[in-house]
Write a structure and sequence with these properties.
6 helices; 75% helix; elongated; mainly alpha
């Protein structure tokens, strides 16, 4: 059996055991890459954590902290304090998930990793995905409205 087929077969067993999402759903949302050198459950956990935590670091943190780039400064002013509070609630959940993942990196079992994958999947689908899509759409629209700066003027929002 080729490594990819073996991976899918092993995941199917784990999927049933822990009521995890279908592998095609995981691939669609998280672009999972397969590594036949490590156990399937650890591969999935690592891939999910990489994607979710990278997203948090690249998208959420700049919106929640003091901006240090021009685009960060402009985008920081595109969202309200209420939006920032909502994003911070999501950020807290991701950070908690991140620390749970650190524990699993030190000491994990198939069951603890399976539970973590389910928790990460549920969090993504219940809290993260739609909120982030909304913010991304808003930024895309707001950037179209930004007028060019003249000399040292402040950015003018449309």
């Amino acid at each position: 059996m080729n490594p990819k087929a073996s991976f899918f077969k092993e995941y199917k067993t784990i999927q049933r055991k822990f009521q995890l999402p279908h592998i095609n759903d995981l691939q669609k949302k998280f672009k999972i890459e397969f590594d036949s050198e490590i156990p399937v459950i650890e591969n999935i956990r690592e891939e999910l954590s990489d994607k979710i935590f990278d997203f948090s670091d690249r998208v959420l943190e700049p919106l929640l902290s003091e901006p240090d780039t021009l685009h960060g400064f402009i985008e920081h002013h595109m969202i309200s304090d209420e939006d920032r509070r909502k994003l911070f609630e999501i950020y807290k959940k991701i950070q908690s998930l991140k620390w749970e993942n650190h524990i699993l990196s030190i000491n994990s079992s198939e069951e603890s990793s399976g539970n973590w994958i389910k928790k990460a999947w549920d969090l993504w689908n219940s809290d993260i995905e739609q909120a982030v899509m909304d913010i991304c759409r808003r930024f895309s629209e707001e950037w179209r409205k930004i007028e060019p700066l003249k000399n040292n003027e402040e950015v003018i929002h449309g």
